[in-house]
Design brief:
This protein is mainly beta and about 425 residues long. It is built from three helices and 25 strands. The strands form six sheets. Strands 19, 20, 23, 24 and 25 form a five-stranded antiparallel beta sheet that branches. Strand 19 and strand 20 form a beta hairpin.
Length: about 425
């Protein structure tokens, strides 16, 4: 009977867990902020305590502790400005208290922001945040900076990007993050000029670190619109030529180690192409990005392919003209009481790619004045090529281009496979006997 008793004790111990009473309603509501201390837009010259956020229920402390390194779950949800250091954040069941690590300084404008994402014990996360603005003796602020952060590599707005506005001339930083559409509203902050940074905060440290992509712009006093911040990787070293290969019989494709300056257009004489081993110089007609290269030097088409493309284009133009005509006829019919729609709606939601700046690229195409020889090697040098940070340099390919012989013509006329073969099943005729 001993083994049976042991099994029963183990089962009983495993069942002894504290669970919610059965039959109760499931909590699906995120925590609600009831009050803050102090209230926003207060002037508190002798303020020494903590900023407090009080909720209607116990909130989650998170799985990562808050040690002042910026990696704690609650530390990631609180921004204290102006400060370059991670704030001190304490969890007190249904309250969160915050103060700057260096303490409150007199005659300053402070901005404490609680970001969306705070969870309760049922892991229901809030979708709204709260900002508290108060001063410790300075004049109340009136400026709000707003704008958009865009990832230049993808042409899409960047969510959860760090926005840091450096107040001039005292260099005090005021921070916030972008929403799901890449937009930000940083206010209220002191009046004056600012240098505003948009930063891809990869480790959520809420500070601009080495090798993180960013963009910056100077905002004049009394200006509230920052505009668009197009973040990209800043590199002080010039771009190198990684590979060079044949694009077709009259062009080369060059791949660089960095994204290039999309506004730069190099002249043809900035590229040297030499045939090895005699270093015979090959004339260069142009060096362009792919879009412009395909426009100026379209791929070769046969007469039948060109005729087919022309017919498809004519058919597409006809369909487009017909659809435009029907749309105009439909727009001419005015329904009483209905408002007329705009013909073109701007993409203000930030869901599609932006075209304010040209896309980035790391490839250039070189058009040659002579055909590439099959089985030969070429050496390429590009002078004055600029990366996205506009750092210019000399790019040389250390790998030579080996142009292989063209494959045999697959359209070459082959032997007729349908030719009638001799009948091997037919018996040979017997010779006649005299």
């Amino acid at each position: 009977m001993k083994p049976v008793r042991i099994v029963l004790l183990v089962v009983a111990a495993g069942c002894a867990r504290i669970v919610a009473p059965p039959g109760g309603p499931t909590d699906r509501v995120p925590p609600v902020l009831l009050s803050t201390r102090p209230d926003s837009l207060e002037s508190l010259p002798d303020f020494k305590g903590d900023v407090e956020f009080r909720f209607n229920e116990v909130v989650s402390e998170g799985g990562t502790p808050n040690f002042g390194l910026g990696t704690g779950d609650l530390e990631k949800l609180v921004l204290v400005s102006p400060s370059y250091r991670v704030p001190v954040v304490h969890w007190k069941r249904d309250r969160i208290t915050v103060h700057p690590r260096e303490g409150w300084r007199p005659n300053e404008v402070y901005r404490v922001e609680l970001l969306p994402g705070l969870a309760d014990l049922s892991n229901n996360r809030s979708k709204n945040g709260r900002v508290i603005n108060f001063t410790t003796g300075a004049a109340l602020p009136t400026t709000t900076l707003h704008g958009l952060v865009v990832d230049w590599a993808t042409l899409h707005p960047l969510r959860n990007a760090l926005v840091q506005a450096i107040h001039l001339p005292d260099s005090l930083p005021y921070n916030t993050v972008t929403d799901s559409l890449g937009r930000f509203n940083l206010g209220l902050v002191p009046d004056g000029a600012y240098i505003v940074y948009g930063i891809e905060d990869q480790n959520t440290s809420r500070t601009r670190e080495y090798r993180e992509r960013f963009d910056s712009i100077r905002v004049a006093p009394a200006q509230d619109s920052v505009g668009e911040l197009w973040i990209f990787k800043h590199d002080s070293t010039a771009a190198r030529l990684s590979t060079a290969a044949a694009n077709d019989s009259l062009s080369l494709v060059l791949t660089f180690s960095q994204m290039l300056n999309p506004y730069q257009r190099l002249p043809a004489d900035s590229v040297e192409v030499r045939l090895l081993p005699d270093s015979v110089r090959i004339p260069v007609l142009a060096i362009l990005p792919k879009g412009q290269f395909d426009t100026l030097f379209p791929a070769h088409l046969t007469d039948s392919a060109r005729a087919r493309a022309d017919s498809l284009k004519a058919r597409e133009d006809s369909v487009r003209a017909d659809s435009i005509a029907r749309a105009r006829q439909a727009a001419a019919i005015r329904i009483p009481g209905a408002q007329r729609r705009r013909a073109i709606e701007l993409d203000t939601a930030g869901t599609g790619p932006l075209r304010t700046k040209p896309p980035l690229f790391d490839k250039l195409y070189v058009r040659l004045g002579a055909q590439l020889r099959p089985g030969s090697d070429y050496f390429v040098v590009v002078h004055g090529i600029q990366n996205t940070s506009r750092v210019a340099g000399l790019a040389k390919s250390v790998a030579r281009i080996a142009v292989e012989k063209p494959p045999p013509d697959s359209l070459k006329t082959k032997a007729d496979s349908l030719k009638v073969k001799p009948d091997t099943t037919r018996k040979p005729a017997r010779p006649r006997t005299p």
